[in-house]
Amino acid sequence: MALIALLLLFAVANYLLSITLHRIAMVSGWTLFLLVVALTAYNLRKRITFLPLGRSATWLQVHIFVGLLSIAVFGMHIGWRIPNGVLEVALAVVYLTVALSGIVGLWISRIFPRRLSDRGEEVFFARIPRVLHRIHAAVEHEVLACLKEDDSTAVPEFYADQLRPFFERHHHFWKHMIKSRRDEQKLLRKMDAYTRYLNSNEKQTIESMKDYVKVKSDLDFHFAHQTVLKTWLFIHVPLSYALVVMAIFHMILVYAFAGAVY
Prior knowledge:
mainly alpha; 2 domains
């Protein structure tokens, strides 16, 4: 008799626990979905500038808070375990990618603007290729002018061997991420060492080219940081919309399956 009572008690407890877990999953699921929709609305707010929807800074603070809250709700929803099923795993991967990119975006949005304002002239990303071409053309003009005046190939040869690749395209992307100027200083030291073999006019040309090296290095710094900012947006924003679509599909399947069961 006691065994039967114990089995009945276990069955009732298991039933109540299953109801509780079901309700937790349902409530956390709906909460998470609403939070994700609210997070996605921030990007729409940035596009709708003509409506009085409040300060952008306030929206950003709310976006950060809701994003952090959603991480806790997400963990609660999946029971802090690896999900089962292809759709659930895909949904979790997309959510975690969005969450991680959001945290990274929060960091770079705080750090990168200060870095860019402290290093050289600020340049719009779309104008960087034109500025690069202008710097390259100016350097080559200096080299040709030196060749015409002195009839010496010392500066043109040094430019072709040591400087042309540097001015033709962007360099040292990842080193600029850690604010390293070692390669720039190394190149400037090479130019200083080479001037001992030159006449006064050639030395003046090298000194002028050193200024262009510094300007080009600053431009590479801006290019690297602005590329990261642009790439982050292309990851975070589209995946946020994809997450909403996948979440809706997930909810349809859950309720369809629940209807089939009951």
